[in-house]
Amino acid sequence: MYKWSWLPALLIGGNLSWADCTLPARVIEHFPQPIESQRLLLPGRAKLQFELGQGTRTFAHVGDMLLVKYEDGALLSHRILDPDELRAADSRLPLPDFVRLMFGPPIETPESADLTDAKAHQDAIRIGCVSIEHYPLEGVDIYSYVQSRSDNTRYQAMFILDGGDVHFVDIQGSETLAKRVVSTLSKRS
Amino acid sequence: MNPYEQEDLAAILSRIYPPALVARWQINEEMAEILLEMSSELGNCSKLMALVPRPLPPGHRPLRYLAGEARRMLLRQLRDDDTYLSCVRVGAAAYRSKFEAANLGL
Asked: What's the pTM value of the predicted model, to 2 decimals?
């Protein structure tokens, strides 16, 4: 009688996990938490900022990228994405719209090559996917995904659409830090 | 890592990332490991990944477990595999910070 009693729990659990990685990205209401330690100010029209958290060890600026290494081995990076990094060089789609296409819902009449590229990114994001989320913040769209890597570390990437620019922030190796960064992401007054 | 392997690795990375970016990197063993880790995480980008021991040992150092000749063959064939390169390019943005950290020895 109890042979299949675990099945509903498995199905519900499976559905929840699957639902977290469906597209379009799940919209999460965002109420920024106060910043309590070092903050990183981002360039751009939206004047964004977030908390870097505790235990920063090394800051490095390499080309267009800022790298922050933490005492526990975690790594945070920030850069403004070059459009050619994500989509074909001959695409006419502005990069923020391409990111919207990656995270859905579909936008108006995209070229088929853009759709193919966006689909390829969606497939890559779904590997080891834990969650895909969309945080609207006072006119700024923030898309985020979390993956579990095969060595059991967490990886979180955020695409922050700031006017015509897309900030790319990623955090490897610390779920706590990733949550802190997301929760403190806000506009500076 | 010998100069031939460095050359093959630089050629692969230059087709994944902008060549000007790769030109300022000091190609090293850790970068090769990151490339294989990225290839492995992205799934079946190449049948050649079957050469890499699975499951990956803790700490992700798959190259260490390949004999010299096999390492050389793996890098050389990946370098010339267009299907593999277009496959890993999709996930490249998510690995760039690891390559930059490896370049700096962080």
From this structure: 0.86
